[in-house]
Amino acid sequence: MGPPGAGKGTQADRFARSRQVPRISTGDVLRQARGQDAELDRQARATMDAGRLVDDDLVIGIVRKRLAEPDVKVGFVLDGFPRTLNQAEALDHLLDDRQPLVVVDIEVPEETLLERLRTRRVCAKCGTPATAVLLVCSACGGPLVPRSDDDLRVVQERLKVYERESAPIVEFYRRRPSFRSVDGDQLQESVAADISSAVASVLGAR
User: Fold this and answer.
1) Is 147 a catalytic residue?
2) Is the pTM for the entire model greater than 0.70?
3) pLDDT tens for each residue of 137-179
4) Fold annotation for 8-203
5) Is 23 left (phi over 0), alpha (psi -120 to 50) or beta?
6) What kind and span of H or E run contains 205?
7) What kind and span of H or E run contains 5?
8) Domain boundaries, the chain
């Protein structure tokens, strides 16, 4: 967990690859679904580009379907879910017979978030995230463009939405023994090491 720009996607991908488990990004799955449904694409694009959250029922349905697939039985990493209390409560029901849910909150100061989001880019060809330091996508060589939801006005709205809708989930999980928080305002390698240690402290070194 963490606000927009905290590095959730980067760290989720890194952790999933290190553990050889699937990374489930609701944003990626939703974008794929949008590409297959013109009406869904229109509605979701308008919502996401305005910095608002997509409807709970739609997102919960996407996650429920993904968690029913066989490759998640050995474990998985959730990126971008849950983002509301309704989604968090639904996730508890989806995970009734699984191992404990480890929740890692990545904490980053707002001024750092704004700077990161201002310079963030995404590949126009394959969707791989990057920063303004790069000229082309490191994965496919495609052109890098600003994300439509990283406009300063939209970014500020997204942070307000996070504080209003998503931040309360941190309090929802904080009382659980499987909750951990890490400092996200440091080098990616240090954040990754802290996340690994946090997960190991709950599940044990595996």
Assistant:
1) yes
2) yes
3) 878 988 887 766 556 777 788 888 888 887 889 999 999 999 9
4) Rossmann fold (3.40.50)
5) beta
6) none
7) none
8) 8-203
